[in-house]
Predict the structure of Fasciclin domain-containing protein.
Amino acid sequence: MKKFFASVAATALFVGGAGVAFADSHSEMSDKKDIVETASSKEDFSTLVTAVSEAGLVEALQGDGPFTVFAPTNDAFAALPDGTVETLLMDENIDQLQAILKLHVVAGKIKSKDIAEGTTEVETLGGETIEVVNDGHSITVGGAEVIMADVYTSNGVIHAIDGVILPE
């Protein structure tokens, strides 16, 4: 799995800026924790961390990167229909869980200020394309709104989103 993540070409979005919350005290250069360690230290990502672990993607997301992770919050997972998360975490559904999680990861480090105003399609590590929309006031990714941007890690950046991106 690590090789898969490392082999995907970087996708870039250019110049923009939107009215989203920014991470408070995370300097781009000072954070020594990787994506998984950073997400694990934030209570609001506990469901995501559990899903990444169950899907066997921890090692991949601890790789060199850089990666951009559009991270659904616990509330985003809770908004899915009853039983969805529990069903996805079952051993027999690991392939489906991995596919969903890979929809939330893009190769490269995309900071919120680098997202151009308008609509841009980006390829995820799952090979699917999602739309990133910057309307000048907010940013949405696959229909989910970025509610906290620019949580820097040693191997990329995390943007918290208010929904779970699902395959079409």
